[in-house]
Structure formats: C-alpha cells, structure tokens
C-alpha cells in the first residue's frame, strides 16, 4: 500500500473505539431487551410533536437550508433573552467547539486549558488543530478547580474550557465562581462554559451565567439539543458568545452544516414545553432514586446536577460493566476519562431505573 504523508498531529491520534451497538449486543448475548444508560440521552426519546414536524418537512429537503439557521437563531434568542448577534447555531455543540478552536487559536503558539478527566472533544479538536492542550488537576472530591485554571492561564491561553454541570462527575460551578474566573483571565482569553447538562440543575439561576450574559465580555456558553431535548441523532447545538467572535465563526464556517430538518426540529422542540418539563421530572425523580439505591448497594455515589451519576462500585468497574452488558444493561465505564474505578449511568425511565437496580443488585450479590 502507498504511504502518504499526513499532518503529524493526525498521525498521533488514536482511532475512536465505539462500544457495541444495541443490535450487536442483542446478537452476541442472545437478548431481546436492552436498557441503554450509557450516553446521557433523553429517556423519553424524542418529543412526538418534534417527530411530526420532521415528517411534515421531509418533502422540503431538496432545497438548501438557510445558512446560519436564522429562524432557529431567532427562536433561541427569544427563549434565552440574548440578542441574535450573540448566537451561533451548529451541527451539535461539537461543531461550535471545533469552530472556536480553529478560529481563535493560532497553531503552534496558543494553548487551551482544561481540567483532567474531562470531555474528550476539547483535547481531540485541539490536537487536530495543532494547538497545545493543557490540563490542571481537579480539586479534592473531583471538584471543578476554577482557581487552578485562573493560575495556569498565560498570555498564550486562547480558550479555557469548563463543563458545568460536568461530564462525567455531575458537579456544577456556581455563577459567582464562573464570574470570578472570567474576571481574572488574561485579556485575550475566552472562558468557554459547556452547558450540555444545564437543563438538569436546580435552581438554574445559581448555575447559568447566561441570565447575565450582557455583564460578561469574554464568556462563551455552549448548549445542545442532544440531551434534554432528545435530538442527539439530528446533531444540533449552539454557542452564545461576544458578537465579534460570533461574526468570525460565521465567516469561517462551512456553509449549511445545520440541515433543514434539524432547524425545524429545534424550533419545535423549544416550543414543546410539556415534553421538556416531563423530561426534567423523570430525570430528577430518577436521580434521587438511583442515588439512594446505588448507595444502599454499597456504591460510592457523587452528588450530581446532571442526567447521570458517577459512582465507584464495590467491585472492579470493567468487570461490572461486562456483567451488566451480558444481562442487557449498557452503562459507561470511565477508563477513557482516566477514571478506571468508576462508572457513569444516566437516568432512564422509572421502569428502566428499577430494572437496572434489580440487575445490579443481582450482579453484586453474586460477587
Ligand atoms: C453530550 C455533550 C455535548 C453535546 O454534544 P453535541 O455535539 O451537541 O451532541 C457537549 N459537551 C459535553 C460535555 C457533552 O457531554
């Protein structure tokens, strides 16, 4: 085979290893029923109203969408009370992360800063772009080390990423702590708060800086339709950022990355308050239930503000993962986050949660 030269940053990357699909697991273990609690998806699926909207617009897909999704941008602007000029809609929030790094960071010169055991996309995208990725250690009990990020930022730090509520720990930073960090970062540095799970915090006003977005000059907030809105497969997210930064992202982007059906679905999802509120009820009830039951079964559970819990089981995490898989339950072992003793499980429906606890207690009893 012919060897082609590739960019050195790309040669170093490990290929992404996806888990088995639901179909593959059914076949391998001879199962008919699978409970997937591994990817923080919405336990209720996608809103029926949104599904109808997608069907209704199917005939329109021969047309190009409108670039930058102006109708969805307007709907988001109304919903969060932030001007349209501050909003960039993307193909999942992953696209916004990618655009921010490509547009803001100078390869070989700038760095981005994060804390350890965090969402892999920041590091992956930085590496692909030839931008140095730096990590600080978390504080005691996996607390978000905003103080250490402030200390570690230097004049070449272009972006500081925090995830709040955090994946995989479920911990959330307060608005005060975020404001303090934003206030002390170097002049040229943007603070990016990834709010993929912000819908599940309580009370929201203590955690999201978006309500006071006009008070910040260097803040970027990322949101997604993949979790609370149940649209992970459609790929839709957005960033809220200074208008000048939004302008550069829009100039640099590939056109039409958000497709027609995703834009229509996003508008319909924002309007379907009943589905959204029911989702929050199910998740919050499930969070209480699972936290209590996991502790009762001898797991060390971290308190969570998200739609998942991180816990350390009283047996090796990788073995527990396999035993659960054999019985049709998919959870997320956290070795890839550098947390080899821990597991992340998202809230399912009430029935799925009960089933998960029943199967888990059987596995643990067999130890
Ligand atoms: C799930 C998740 C996202 C969402 O990504 P999309 O590209 O919008 O699906 C973003 N950040 C974190 C930390 C996540 O866990």
Bound small molecules, which ones? pyridoxal-5'-phosphate
The CATH C-level class name of the largest domain: Alpha Beta
Shape: globular
CATH superfamily of the largest domain: Type I PLP-dependent aspartate aminotransferase-like (Major domain)
Fraction of residues in helix = 25-40%
| Alpha-carbon Rg, integer | 21 Å
Tally the helices: what do you get? 13
Low-confidence stretches: none
Through-space gap between termini: 50 Å
Number of strands: 13
Write the layout of secondary structure elements.
Blueprint: H1 8-11, H2 22-29, E1 35-36, H3 48-56, H4 70-80, E2 87-90, H5 93-104, E3 111-115, H6 120-128, E4 132-136, H7 146-152, E5 157-163, H8 175-184, E6 190-194, E7 219-224, E8 237-240, H9 243-252, H10 260-271, H11 273-296, E9 300-301, E10 308-312, H12 317-326, E11 329-330, E12 332-333, E13 343-346, H13 350-365
Parallel strand pairs: 1-11, 3-4, 3-5, 5-6, 6-7
Antiparallel strand pairs: 2-8, 7-8, 9-10, 10-13, 12-13
Bound molecules: pyridoxal-5'-phosphate (PLP).
Describe the structure.
- 39% of the residues lie in helices and 14% in strands.
- The protein is α/β, with parallel strands linked by helices.
- It folds into two domains: 8-46 and 274-364, Aspartate Aminotransferase, domain 1 (Alpha-Beta Complex); 48-272, Type I PLP-dependent aspartate aminotransferase-like (Major domain) (Aspartate Aminotransferase, domain 2).
- The longest helix is centred in the last third of the chain and has 24 residues, at 273-296.
- Bound molecules: pyridoxal-5'-phosphate.
- Pyridoxal-5'-phosphate binds next to helix 5.
């Amino acid at each position: 085979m012919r060897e082609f030269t590739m960019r050195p940053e790309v040669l170093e990357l490990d290929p992404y290893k996806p888990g088995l699909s639901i179909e593959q697991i059914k076949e391998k273990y001879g199962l008919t029923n699978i409970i997937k609690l591994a990817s923080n998806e919405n336990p209720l699926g996608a809103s029926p109203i949104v599904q109808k909207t997608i069907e209704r617009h199917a005939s329109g897909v021969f047309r190009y969408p409108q670039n930058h999704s102006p109708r969805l941008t307007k709907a988001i602007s109304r919903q969060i009370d932030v001007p349209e000029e501050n909003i960039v809609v993307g193909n999942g929030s992953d696209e916004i992360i990618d655009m921010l790094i490509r547009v803001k960071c100078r390869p070989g010169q700038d760095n981005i800063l994060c804390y350890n055991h965090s969402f892999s996309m920041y590091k992956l995208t930085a590496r692909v772009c030839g931008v140095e990725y730096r990590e600080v250690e978390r504080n005691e009990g996996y607390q978000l080390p905003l103080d250490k990020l402030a200390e570690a930022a230097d004049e070449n730090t272009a972006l500081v990423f925090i995830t709040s509520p955090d994946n995989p720990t479920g911990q959330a930073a307060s608005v005060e702590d975020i404001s303090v960090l934003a206030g002390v970062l170097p002049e040229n540095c943007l603070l990016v708060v990834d709010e993929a799970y912000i819908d599940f915090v309580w009370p929201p006003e203590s955690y999201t800086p978006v309500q006071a977005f006009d008070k910040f000059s260097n803040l970027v907030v990322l949101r997604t339709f993949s979790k609370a809105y149940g649209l992970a497969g459609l790929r839709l997210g957005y960033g809220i950022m200074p208008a000048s930064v939004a302008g550069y992202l829009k100039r640099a982007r590939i056109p039409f990355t958000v497709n027609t059906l995703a834009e229509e679905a996003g508008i319909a999802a924002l309007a379907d308050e009943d589905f959204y509120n029911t989702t929050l009820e199910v998740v919050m009830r499930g969070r209480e239930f699972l936290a209590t039951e996991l502790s009762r079964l001898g797991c060390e559970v971290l308190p969570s503000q998200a739609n998942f819990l991180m816990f350390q089981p009283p047996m090796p995490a990788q073995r527990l993962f396999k035993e659960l898989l054999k019985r049709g339950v998919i959870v997320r072992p956290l070795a890839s986050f550098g947390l080899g003793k821990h597991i992340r499980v998202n809230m399912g429906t009430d029935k799925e949660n009960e089933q998960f606890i029943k199967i888990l207690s059987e596995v643990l009893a067999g130890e």
